[in-house]
Amino acid sequence: MRSLFVMDPLEKIQIDGDSTWMLMRESQRRGWPVAFCTPSQMGFEHDRPFANVQSVTCLDASPWFSVEPVERIPLEAFDVIWMRKDPPFDMDYVFCTYLLDLVADKTCVLNEPSSLKLANEKMFALFWPELGPETIVSNDIQHIRETVDRLGRAVIKPWDGNGGRGVLVTRKGDPNLGAMIELLTEEGSRSILVQEYLPEIEQGDKRIILVDGDPVGWFLRVPTAGDHRGNIHVGARVKACELTARDREICAAIRPALKKGGMVFVGIDVIGDAMTEVNVTSPTGIQEANRLMGTQIERALIDAAERRAREFPRGPSWKD
């Protein structure tokens, strides 16, 4: 099972919390050849997409990776391609999915490139408005202000943000509200999300990891004092939790769409009883869930990749 990871440069990987690292190690543990490239190393020539890749071996200590010289290899030579480039989801990211589209009928690409284009973290959740907080999407400054006044307390954020970037909590009568709206909408030229504030965020933002549509791991990310964001990289504390009946209801509701769209590795965010995001582009949380629950989610993911890869015709040899 020849695996390619399209990802950020290796030197950017934070070993103690990175999910791609876990997938690479598990692939290697099974004896599978592993290679990586960045999106900028992909292209098209001779009637098929190629990438300048490097074979890689994961090590048990720093520098953590041993890499081989660059080879130019057709993407169809791989059995599995993991699209693991971190957000932002910009046009460079979209261009990468176009190249992956060209090989998606020959090679198992996870998550499927067509779904990567559809499933924006925040907007995709709006396919199930009954599962989430009250939300509007607008660039109308007056409409946004009126919505915040009606809700009393609200969260405003960019539709294309990530990692808590630009997520602001405001309220009716906030003297900074006008400036916040003008800044996030760029004077009314960009749409933003406005959602009702969920006070349960103080107990934590629950990350639920789904593999092939089924929940396999979960934990809370509890914001630090003085910060409303449940993002680990801004200091949120990870805490064990239970999967509630409502959580299972949410997972069951979105499962058919995830299965149909080839979204094998997904992380959803739940605050209280409301789903706020569906993370498809490069979900994380494997290591945190494994530590708290004693799971090995990377094994479930590689099992799922192997099952899907069997459905595809074998491509040319690695060296062809």
Detailed description of the structure:
The longest helix is centred in the C-terminal third of the chain and has 16 residues, at 245-260. The strands form 3 sheets. Strands 1, 2, 3, 4, 5, 6 and 7 form a 7-stranded mixed sheet that branches. The chain has 8 helices and 16 strands. It is globular. It is of the alpha+beta class and 320 residues long. It has 3 domains: 3-110, 3-Layer(aba) Sandwich (Rossmann fold); 134-197, Dna Ligase, domain 1, CATH 3.30.1490; 201-296, ATP-grasp fold, B domain (D-amino Acid Aminotransferase, Chain A, domain 1).
Short description:
This protein is an alpha+beta fold and 320 residues long.
Ordered list of secondary-structure elements with their pairings:
Elements: E1 3-6, H1 19-29, E2 34-37, E3 42-45, E4 48-58, E5 65-74, E6 80-83, H2 91-101, E7 108-110, H3 113-118, E8 135-138, H4 141-151, E9 153-158, E10 168-171, H5 177-185, E11 192-196, E12 205-211, E13 214-222, E14 237-239, H6 245-260, E15 265-271, E16 274-279, H7 286-293, H8 297-309
Parallel strand pairs: 1-2, 1-6, 6-7
Antiparallel strand pairs: 2-4, 3-4, 4-5, 8-11, 9-10, 9-11, 12-13, 12-15, 13-14, 15-16
Helix pairs in contact: 1-8
